[in-house]
Amino acid sequence: AAGKAGWDSPLQRNRGRGIAAHESFNSFVAQVAEVTVRPDNTFTVDRVVIAVDCGIAVNPDIVVAQMEGGMGFGLSAALSSEITLDEGRVVQSNFHDYTVLRMSEMPRKVEVHIVPSAQPPTGVGEPATPVIAPAVANALFAATGERQRDLPLQMG
Fold first, then answer.
1. Nearest to 49 by CA among 131, 116, 124, 127
2. Largest CA distance in the chain
3. Counting runs of H as helices and runs of E as strands, what totals does the chain give?
4. Within 10 Å of residue 142's Cβ, how many Cβ atoms?
5. Mapping DSSP to helix (H, G, I), strand (E, B) and coil, where does residue 70 land?
6. Residue 8 per-residue DSSP state
7. How does strand 27-37 pair with strand 43-53?
8. Given the DSSP bridges, would you call strands 89-90 and 15-24 parallel, antiparallel or unpaired?
9. In a structure prediction context, what are the per-residue pLDDT tens digits for the chain, which is 156 residues long?
C-alpha cells in the first residue's frame, strides 16, 4: 500500500498521508489515506490506496468492489456516523439523523491493489472497514501534528 501510494513522495504543507493495516477473516488489508486540511480546520479525504492479500482472487472485480464498499462504510463512521445516548436511549432513529457517507463525499481517487497469491481464498466482505479511520487519523496527524482520538474525526 505504501509503495503504491508513493509514500516517500512529499505532499504540500496542508496535506498529510497516513497508513493503517488490519487482519481479519484470514485477509490482510493496508490502506493509505491522503487528506487536505483547510484553514478553517475542515478536511477532505482525497485519495485512498488499498492493498489486500486475500489469497487467490477468484473474482477480482468482487474483491475490488468489497474493498471500496468496506472502506466507504468505515469512512462513514470515521467522518460522520455517530450514535449518541440520552438517558439510556439512542437519539438517532434513521438515516435523516444518522448520516452516512454520500457518493459526493467519497475520496476523489480510490485504488485497490490485490496482492498476487496462490493461497486459498479468504474473506473480503469486512476486512476493509476498520482500516480507514486509523489511516485518516494518521494522515491528519501528519498534516497538523495533532492526534485525533475520537470518532467521528473532527479538527479543532
1. 131
2. 53
3. 3, 6
4. 18
5. helix
6. T
7. antiparallel
8. unpaired
9. 999 999 999 999 999 999 999 999 999 999 999 999 999 999 999 999 999 999 999 999 999 999 999 999 999 999 998 889 999 999 999 988 888 888 898 999 999 999 999 999 999 989 999 999 999 999 999 999 999 999 999 876
Q: How many CA atoms lie within 13 A of 33 on its CB side?
A: 31
Strand partners, 50: 31, 112
Place of cell 434513521: 94
- The 3-state secondary structure of 74-130, one letter per residue: HHHHHHCCCCCEECCEECCCCCCCCCCCCHHHCCCEEEEEECCCCCCCCCCCCCCHH
Grid coordinates standing for 13?
504543507
How far apart (Å, rounded) are the C-alpha atoms in residues 122 and 116?
13
Distance CA 143, CA 37 (A): 7
